[in-house]
């Protein structure tokens, strides 16, 4: 099932399918290592717009839900 | 210098937090502070390469701010790229590019950080790839196949752990070999930008080949608590409250000891030496002046020590995530957290730490509001004023009152940040925030202790001569032409009308005037002025508590003391902060506006407090 990264629940694994948003937003997401094909797992979720955290490429990154909404992911079975 | 006049340079470069500064300290035998937070080094540091062989003592080693990729976008990262491309602007007689780049990558974050190696391949500069924190190897981290890493990246490699002297000398040998003997410059290398997706795929493929997948034991992850939606804010507030209370509670016995020591010394002098104006100056002026300032050094030490512990543990990055949302409402982001928190110690490093903020407007607002955070130089002032307000007996009340002061100063900072953000055009939730979390790290108590000691010592060294000069100057001014009609009287009479609305007299005015040199001067200046103008004193606090206005009313009332506290919270009184603001903001306009508006606001608040309290 495909959805935005900020819609995932806790401790879910997923693979990035596609990035959206402006060129600068995409460039920043790529720089963080969030590129299509990368597997990620969610750690903590956003509450009231606070940053959410995911594990990706062996490290933990935090980003705001607005940015995470530009990352389209496919949930792993 | 024998063969040519060109200075050879080695640039330490790599992502934030990969251990460049640790390696730099080991190689140059220096002790720059290493911090477990992305972006702790914001300026390049130079050192000469330590080596038993003398011929390499002229090689300059450069430590640089961390970069994620060569397409940098924050002020601190631009420093690094500029150093890489224009080394000659930093080191006289150097070539345009460094003779050798030492790319330092963290072994536990290799998949992410190896993209820099790919970007360096495009630059085609002589490069040594150093994999750091090798001591984590074998624990729950990875076995790395270093020869294959060399083969696949095309760089010479070495593994380094600052705890293992053999690994250091092994890497140093490789550096020396790659540096070679030829000091001549290479051709200028253009900045090559590639495709970051390709870089990541290249890195992934290499890491899969060289890293034997080790099943990491399911160790407990501190982030389960530190980032927990409900527990995290509680832990955060707990830590911050503990922080301010520790400043008062733990410091109290040490402060008493210092206070007793100086009183004893003062008495010894006034009893031992023949009674004269000079003896009085020595015991009530110099000794009491220094004592009243030095008594606060335990608090300053504890402040630096706790900030040091937070910095090296990796907690600051978690803190930044927790406060991101409230800061976003103001128009800032979690990126402003560390600069603002550093402002609790000193505004100068805090202003420099603001370079890590990518958004220019946000960086400006943060720098503009940093002077409002209560820095360590205000502690002596608050300490004195709180003693006047609630007496000496209860450290519990004092701790509570100090916490209230910090909460109030955070509130004032927030309000002004929100206003300034709107003026420069930042609305709520408009900024961006993302951060790579550093690994948790057990802080080294020894290093944190030594560093806090260094900072406290340099604080005393910085203030010492000023206090001395101010003390002597004040003594001269208050003794001539005659003690009853001295220059101090004239100055204090002259400025008295300005102080009247604050409920204070001209003597406090003189001390306030002097505090514009540095805030902590206020305490020793006040001590000196009152001990020289009052007879039969039995301690500064006693003198101040009985001091009266011309009208006979008490000088230090609840209103005037709270007014003074508010004045010190808001007023911009530090020349060094003004200088660094001018440098970091790039013009005089904003710092001048900042100074004028903060002084005006401080005065207004003090007057209001005096009227209504």
Reading side by side through the largest sheet of chain A, how are the strands ordered?
Answer: 1-6-2-3-4-5
Based on DSSP secondary structure assignment, what is the total number of beta strands of chain B?
9
* Outline type of chain B: elongated
The Rg value of chain A, from CA coordinates, equals 11 Å
Rg estimate of chain B, integer Å:
28 Å
Looking at CATH, which topology of chain A would you report? SH3 type barrels
Q: Please summarize the sheet with the most strands of chain A.
A: 6 strands, antiparallel
Spatial shape of chain A? globular
Give the class of chain A from helix and strand content and strand pairing.
alpha+beta
Total number of beta strands of chain A = 6
Taking the alpha carbons of the first and last residues of chain A, their distance comes to 9 Å
Mean pLDDT of chain B: 84
Instruction: Tell me, rounded to a whole number, the average pLDDT of chain A.
Output: 91
Q: Report the uncertain regions of chain A.
A: none
Neighbour order of strands in the largest sheet of chain B? 2-3-1-4-5-7
């Amino acid at each position: 099932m495909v959805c935005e990264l900020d819609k995932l629940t806790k401790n879910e694994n997923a693979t990035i399918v596609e990035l959206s948003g402006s060129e600068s937003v995409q460039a920043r997401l790529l720089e963080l290592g969030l590129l299509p094909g990368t597997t990620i797992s969610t750690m903590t979720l956003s509450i009231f717009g606070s940053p959410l955290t995911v594990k990706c490429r062996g490290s933990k990154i935090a980003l705001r839900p607005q940015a995470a909404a530009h990352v389209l992911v496919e949930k792993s079975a | 210098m024998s063969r040519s006049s060109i200075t050879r340079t080695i640039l330490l470069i790599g992502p934030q937090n990969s251990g460049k500064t640790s390696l730099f300290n080991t190689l140059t035998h220096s002790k720059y502070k290493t911090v477990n937070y992305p972006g702790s080094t914001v300026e390049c540091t130079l050192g000469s390469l330590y080596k038993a062989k003398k011929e390499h003592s002229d090689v300059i080693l450069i430590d640089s701010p961390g970069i994620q990729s060569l397409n940098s976008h924050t002020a601190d990262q631009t420093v690094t790229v500029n150093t890489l491309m224009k080394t000659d602007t930093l080191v006289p007689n150097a070539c345009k590019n460094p003779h050798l780049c030492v790319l330092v990558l963290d072994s536990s974050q290799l998949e992410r950080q190896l993209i820099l190696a790919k970007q360096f391949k495009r630059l085609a500069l002589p490069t040594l790839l150093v994999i750091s924190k090798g001591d984590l190897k074998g624990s729950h981290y990875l076995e790395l196949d270093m020869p294959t890493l060399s083969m696949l990246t095309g760089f010479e490699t070495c593994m380094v752990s600052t705890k293992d002297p053999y690994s250091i000398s092994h890497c140093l040998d490789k550096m020396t070999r790659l540096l070679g003997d030829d000091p001549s410059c290479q051709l200028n290398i253009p900045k090559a930008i590639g495709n970051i997706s390709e870089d990541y795929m290249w890195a992934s493929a290499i890491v899969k080949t060289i890293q034997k997948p080790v099943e990491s034991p399911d160790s407990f992850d501190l982030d389960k608590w530190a980032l927990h939606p409900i527990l995290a804010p509680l832990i955060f507030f707990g830590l911050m409250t503990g922080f301010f209370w520790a400043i008062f509670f733990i410091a109290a016995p040490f402060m008493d000891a210092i206070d007793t020591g100086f009183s004893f010394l003062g008495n010894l002098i006034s009893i031992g030496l023949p009674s004269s104006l000079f003896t009085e100056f020595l015991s009530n002026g110099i000794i009491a002046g220094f004592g009243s300032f030095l008594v606060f050094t335990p608090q300053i030490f504890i402040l630096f020590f706790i900030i040091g512990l937070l910095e090296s543990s990796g907690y600051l990055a978690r803190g930044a995530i927790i406060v991101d949302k409230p800061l976003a409402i103001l128009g800032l982001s979690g990126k402003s957290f560390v600069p603002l928190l550093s402002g609790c110690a000193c505004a100068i490093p805090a202003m420099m730490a603001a370079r890590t903020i990518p958004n220019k407007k946000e960086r400006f607002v943060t720098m503009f509001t940093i002077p409002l955070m209560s820095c360590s130089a205000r502690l002596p002032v608050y300490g004195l004023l709180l003693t006047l307000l609630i007496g000496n007996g209860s450290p519990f009340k004092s701790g509570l009152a100090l916490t209230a002061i910090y909460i109030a100063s955070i509130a004032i900072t927030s309000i002004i940040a929100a206003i300034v953000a709107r003026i420069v055009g930042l609305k709520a939730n408009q900024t961006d925030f993302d951060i790579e979390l550093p690994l948790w790290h057990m802080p080294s108590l020894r290093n944190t202790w030594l560093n806090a000691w260094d900072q406290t010592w340099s604080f005393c060294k910085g203030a010492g001569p000023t206090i001395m000069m101010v003390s002597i100057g004040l003594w001269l001014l208050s003794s001539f032409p005659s003690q009853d009609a001295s220059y101090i009287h004239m100055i204090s009479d002259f400025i008295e009308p300005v102080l009247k609305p604050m409920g204070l007299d001209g003597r406090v005015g003189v001390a306030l005037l002097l505090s514009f040199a540095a805030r902590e001067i206020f305490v020793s200046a006040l001590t000196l002025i009152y001990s020289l103008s009052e007879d039969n004193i039995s301690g500064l606090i006693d003198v101040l508590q009985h001091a009266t206005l011309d009208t006979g009313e008490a000088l230090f009332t609840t209103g005037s003391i709270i007014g003074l506290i508010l004045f010190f919270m808001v007023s911009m009184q530090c020349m060094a902060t003004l200088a660094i603001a001018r440098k970091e903001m790039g013009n005089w306009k904003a710092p001048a506006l900042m100074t004028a508006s903060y002084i005006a606001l401080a005065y207004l608040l003090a007057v209001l407090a005096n009227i209504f309290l």
